[in-house]
TrEMBL record:
It holds the Pfam family FAD_binding_3. It comes from the Bacteria. One of its GO terms (molecular function) is FAD binding. Residues 5-77, 259-331 form the FAD-binding domain. SUPFAM superfamilies: FAD/NAD(P)-binding domain (SSF51905). Transmembrane segments: none annotated. This is 2-polyprenyl-6-methoxyphenol hydroxylase-like FAD-dependent oxidoreductase. It comes from Yoonia maricola. Keywords: Monooxygenase, Oxidoreductase.
Amino acid sequence: MTKRIKIAIAGAGIGGLTAAALLADRGHRVEIFDKFDTPQPVGSGLVIQPVGQAVLDHIGAGDAARALGNPIQRMLGHEADKGRKVLNVWYDKDAGGQFGLGIHRASLFQAIFAAVQARDIKVHTQSQINTARSGMVQLANGRAHGPFDLIVDSAGAGSPLSPLVSQPLPYGAIWGTVDWPKTDLPRTQLSQCYRSANRMIGALPIGKIPGDATPKAAIFWSMPRDSYDTWVAEGIEAWKAEATTLWPAFAPFAAQVRSTDQMTMARYAHGTLRRPWSPGLVHIGDAAHKASPQLGQGANMALLDALALARALDATSGDAALALYTKARRWHVMTYQAMSSAFTPQYQSDSRWLPALRDRLLYPLSQVPPGPRVLTAIVCGTMLPPLRGLGRV
């Protein structure tokens, strides 16, 4: 191992906490700086793919996450008007060995934060890093900390440290968490319903949240990014009527939403830093690359970034380690960014011909060998080596 160094991590999110645990395990002195009064998650449900679960296992958080989450064996989507399947992806239809993990962000956060608390890692709360220069970090309250040998920017999509300029996507989605109801929908699959590409409804089983043993679901509804205020003004009953007309099976989920306040708007963007580092500073997760959630890879990319950075620092030091981290992640990130950019308009856009192409050509082709195997590799995150040159996950 190279020399032990002093590291500051901006942001106590999934990537930042994971990086802290991985780096502390290698003997580095790690401090986390987070803007909240107490570290906390933001958002509803997500899917941790097999590669992401493997990273969680490296820090001893995998079993805790799986105990709270819900195994997902399949992603199934159908078209609203005629009921045709237009998405059908199995994680491991034959052997049943690998699966996606549907989980609430609060549950995932609890599993990872517990791993951090079990290590000698200092966490600074109410401490948003606004600038980083020459090994020093300047907080929003004016205080400075340092010097640090390395500053890791994991402060997310709005990081003040990241120069990333991204392209806003025309569509986003509202998300909420409800109890898993009595329903014919399997609790082993992500279920979705589409009308053309301008309506998308989904129900994702996400297991339990801390302090509540009732199985939960994350529900979502696609809408143009500037339509949220209109949606609120029209009232919750109008939305519930439209959603359940399009997809009657969604009714027991929608019935639990009694106020627009139960749903949170998420807006998305695409963008990638060509060089996610400068001397003494490296960007990981959404601070380095942003994409729509169509392939469910955002959190997994942050986990993989954290592991790649830790292994690059095992192999060398200084700027050479940051360049090695970038090289190891470049093709995996670029490929998934490109696929996300290509797939998103097929499911979230005002296009009429793209969903027709999706339903009548791309979906039938995807079910012909080797299509199913390729789709499985895409969702599992293994289409390309995630840590090129730095070993297996």
